[in-house]
Amino acid sequence: MRYLTFALTKGRLASKTLDMLEKLGITCDEMKDKNSRKLIFTNEELGLRFFLAKGPDVPTYVEYGAADIGVVGKDTIIEEGRKVHEVLDLGFGKCRMCVCGHEETAEKLQHHELIRVATKYPNIAKDYFYNKKHQTVEIIKLNGSIELAPIVGLSEVIVDIVETGSTLKENGLVVLEEVCPLSARMIVNPVSMRMENDRIKELITNLRNLLREE
Ligand code: PRP
Q1: Which residues line ligand 1 (CB under 6 A)?
Q2: Which residue has a Cα nearest atom 22 of ligand 1?
Q3: Which atom of ligand 1 is closest in space to residue 166's alpha carbon?
Q4: Given this model, what pLDDT does residue 180 score?
Q5: Which of ligand 1's atoms lies nearest the C-alpha of 95?
Q6: What is the rounded CA–CA span in Å between residue 148 and residue 68?
Q7: Where is the ATP phosphoribosyltransferase catalytic domain (predicted)?
Q8: Over the Cα atoms of the chain, what is R_g?
Q9: Rounded distance, CA 76 to CA 87, Å?
Q10: 138-164, pLDDT tens digit by residue?
């Protein structure tokens, strides 16, 4: 039997994915050792391999077939635009992509003033402002702590993930517009989907049933 390889997003999404798989009897004890520096983990019995990667790299591994299956946030799937099949909404990691800023900025947004938008997601921001809102903006790519940008005057607004809203609140910012809802998704390499159809379909069906029961 050929190994089915999973690329999981390092951190909370991977833990939640492993919890879900465990409920289906798919375990990988090797992965639970937090001190291990191993990068790839195997379940010989089931013919499965798992590795952890940074979110934006997960769709890359899956597009090239280095992983058959990936678990990653919808934000990353949209931003990366890789050729992968999105097969299942796993229901966890729920949050929203939003345009945020100081309350006073709402007016500038409405009047389509030329504003600066800081974001870790330039493609999502471009699509939203250029294609959906037909608004010209200047997009500035940042790599984290995006909420700083409007506070220190780098940009008028940000396009970023809002989960509980506490980062915004603690920094005197608000949601001005919602771009789209997000959650963790399962993605599959298109060739793997054909070659390993039975095994992958069975996994999707089992996960779907599990999600229905919850
Ligand atoms: C994310 C996101 C927001 C925050 C939202 O950042 O970019 O900053 O979480 O969560 P909340 O609404 O529950 O406060 P993350 O912690 O991933 O780090 P980053 O800022 O370095 O991207």
Answers
A1: 144-147, 160-167
A2: 144
A3: 14
A4: 98
A5: 12
A6: 37
A7: 56-208
A8: 19
A9: 15
A10: 999 999 999 999 999 999 999 999 999
From the CA of 162, give the closest atom in ligand 1: 12
Q: Using 50, 70 and 90 to split pLDDT, how confident is the model at 37?
A: confident
Q: From ligand 1's centre to the CA of 91, what distance in Å? A: 19
Which residue owns the Cα nearest ligand 1 atom 10? 163
CA dihedral 156, 158, 164, 167 (to 10 degrees): -60
Cα 162 to ligand 1 centroid, rounded to whole Å = 7
CB 46 within 8 A of CB 30: no
Tell how far the Cα of 206 is from the centroid of ligand 1, in angstroms: 31
Model confidence, pTM = 0.95
The CA 161 to ligand 1 mean position distance, Å, reads 6
Protein residue closest via CA to atom 19 of ligand 1: 144
Distance CA 34, CA 77 (A): 27
